[in-house]
Amino acid sequence: MHKIIVTGPESTGKTTLSKNLSKHLNRKLVNEFARNYLTKNNNTYNFENLLEIAQNQLKLENQKSQIIICDTDLLTIKIWSEYKFGKCDSWILDKINTQKKEQRIYLLCKPDLMWEYDPQRENEYERDKIFNLYKKELISLEHKFWIIKGNNRFDLAKKYIASIF
After folding, report:
1. Phi first, then psi: what are they for 31, rounded to 5°?
2. Are 5 and 104 in contact (CB under 8 A)?
3. Closest CA to 69 of 33, 103, 21, 138
4. Residue 10: its pLDDT value, please?
5. Of 1, 72, 117, 130, which sees the most CB atoms within 10 A?
6. Once rounded to an integer, what is the mean pLDDT over residues 103-112?
7. Is the pTM of this model over 0.85?
């Protein structure tokens, strides 16, 4: 199974790109569990909630299909946990480590789009810093990834994906 994960800092077009790729490739879309969780909890959470979010995100991701498109994954939860709380639950770290064996392709969205307000977004001015955390993690994990930037993200993503399949 191939997993195409759209990831990156807040307000970089991840959800739009994920939905468009899912439709274009006619593949299942795995939505971001955290968005619904936070909506139900008035956008409040703590360190312990991240484990529940991660476990449910992984359940969604483990759907059976030849190729799936994921609007985020555990890497986002790890980066966010370490950025916000200075630590990450060992369960999340262990699962990310086992995912090294999977066929995962990452589309890392660069924060070069205008910030759009959303009550769940917290870091308008730290997006470049967070982008670099993603890039560093993906390099460290040795996952294949491409940086998606500019206004033609969908076309760029299609080009990268076509080079693989």
Report:
1. -75, 165
2. yes
3. 21
4. 94
5. 72
6. 96
7. yes
Q: Rounded distance, CA 41 to CA 134, Å? A: 26
Contact (CB, 8 A) for 110 and 152: no
Neighbours of 97 (CB within 10 A): 10
Q: Who's near 54: CB < 8 A, 6+ residues apart?
A: 74, 77, 89, 91, 92, 95
* Strand boundaries in the chain, DSSP class E: 2-7, 28-30, 67-71, 103-109, 144-148
Label the pairing between strands 2-7 and 67-71. Answer: parallel
pLDDT band, residue 119 (cuts 50/70/90)? confident
- Written as six digits, the tokens of 112 are 């070069």
